[in-house]
Write a structure and sequence with these properties.
303 residues, mainly alpha, 73% helix, membrane, transmembrane, DNA-directed RNA polymerase, transcription
């Protein structure tokens, strides 16, 4: 008989969702737990004064940064094996069916709905792994983290229109694959599909809570202590995390203004106008007393 998942606070539940989100990308539970640990350390070390808890959207920005780093390290580690596999192909290539192809959901008359079965959670997880990164992230922030559209757009550094479009495409893909698996979703709306998918993801999350709930609780207790005051550089990083899209547009505007000013200062016509003005001044009639002035002679010698 499986043990019940430990009781987690709302903050620890947010950390558990963060671990599940990391697991979608890195594919290893220990690596996902390490990503959450590094994110919590960064949150407590630099931004504890600005963040209430892990439910803050700023936590999602930090989590995305550490996920990119972990994924980059994984790709670097796989670079040499992938190169060798291309240079020395295996003798026989056998295409084994993937996890998504092998998953089957029992939809009998007296069976629960697809999103209430453990296979339903695994199915939604595998579908999310197939989605493009932007679509998966938009779906996760809107329907799993339940962030408002404006906050989700800030987390993803996109416009609200792009986030809504990506989440809609992800839901459409979910509906199409679930229909192929025999789930009765033909008449369901996109909002119903997203709600059922979020409920299905709660089942694998309960399994993670049993396996890593105590570890997550210890992580949150370790960072729950007085921390040093923030520095000016941390405040600058905080601004970029809070308003990523606006900060990028401001930096881009400053670069464009600097380039435009440089081009204006180096215009050939401007130098020619300055030279023409100097020639006119030198060729004009200068009074005799000015020519005989010692200061004028010294200035001319210096030129």
């Amino acid at each position: 008989m499986a043990s019940a998942p430990p009781l987690l606070s709302s903050t620890e539940s947010a950390g558990l969702r963060a671990m599940q989100q990391a697991l979608l990308i890195v594919g290893d539970e220990q690596t996902a737990l390490a990503v959450v640990r590094d994110t919590l350390r960064a949150m407590s070390k630099r931004y504890a004064y600005a963040m209430k808890d892990a439910r803050d959207p700023l936590f999602q920005r930090l989590l995305r940064q550490h996920l990119r780093r972990a994924r980059w390290r994984q790709r670097l580690g796989q670079l040499l094996p992938d190169l060798l596999s291309h240079l020395i192909p295996p003798q026989s290539e056998t295409l084994a069916p993937g996890t998504l192809e092998m998953l089957q959901i029992d939809l009998g008359e007296h069976r629960p709905a697809w999103h209430e079965q453990p296979q339903g959670g695994l199915l939604v997880t595998e579908i999310l792994r197939l989605l493009p990164t932007r679509q998966r992230d938009a779906f996760w922030q809107l329907h799993v983290e339940c962030l408002p559209l404006q906050q989700a757009a800030r987390v993803l550094a996109l416009t609200q229109r792009c986030v809504r479009r990506d989440a809609s495409r992800a839901t459409a893909m979910l509906k199409a694959i679930l229909a192929l698996k025999g789930c009765a979703v033909e008449m369901a709306t996109k909002s119903d599909i997203a709600l059922c998918a979020a409920k299905a993801l709660a089942l694998p999350r309960a399994t993670l809570a049993i396996a890593h709930g105590d570890a997550l609780r210890q992580l949150f207790q370790a960072v729950d202590r007085p921390l040093r005051r923030s520095r000016l550089t941390d405040r600058g990083r905080l601004l970029m995390l809070r308003h990523p899209l606006g900060t990028r547009l401001a930096i881009l505007g400053a670069l464009i203004a600097a380039v435009a000013a440089g081009l204006w200062l180096t215009q050939p016509g401007r130098n020619e106008d300055q030279a023409r003005t100097e020639i006119q001044l030198l060729s004009s009639d200068v009074p005799l007393d000015v020519l005989l002035d010692s200061r004028f002679v010294e200035a001319a010698d210096e030129d």
